[in-house]
Amino acid sequence: MEKSPEAAGGATPKVPSLNVVIMGAGIAGLAAAIALRRAGHKVSMHEQRPAETESALGLVIPPNAGRLLQALGVDPIALGFVEARELQFYCAETLMKGSCMSLSAKEGESFGSVFYFGHRRDLHTALVNLATQADGVGEPVVIRYDSQVWEYVSAVLSPFPFPLSPRHWALASKTSC
Question: Hey, CA dihedral for 25, 29, 34, 37, is it positive or negative?
């Protein structure tokens, strides 16, 4: 069995910094951008909507997502999210009350986070701020709003699962880069 460089007493191999393009500046795209920024990559995002058009829909944040948000530096309580005490399920066809799941702090301890209820806009704003703030770890993420993909060129012939240079990028945008 081959040993890793660390186990063999060698240095940890340095991952080269990549230029990463993320299509879509929603919650998942922003979370990925923050993690990539912190890993030392240069990240730019293209979002088809104009800036400041995030809706104020409600969210249920389960414990696995709560742990991820906290690892990214988002404090759900500071955003005004509330801890769920129970989840009530209803039949989609009849709207009849179904099962109910009581939640306690004990479940939060075993899951590493609790269930939260909050507003999408508040979470989105917090993630945009983390991604683009000048004083964060790594180079700030650049978000280009009102930027639509109008053509996609496949890089299937490449032996690598991702483009290696800007000439291989499968992105064409109406806005200038």
Answer: negative
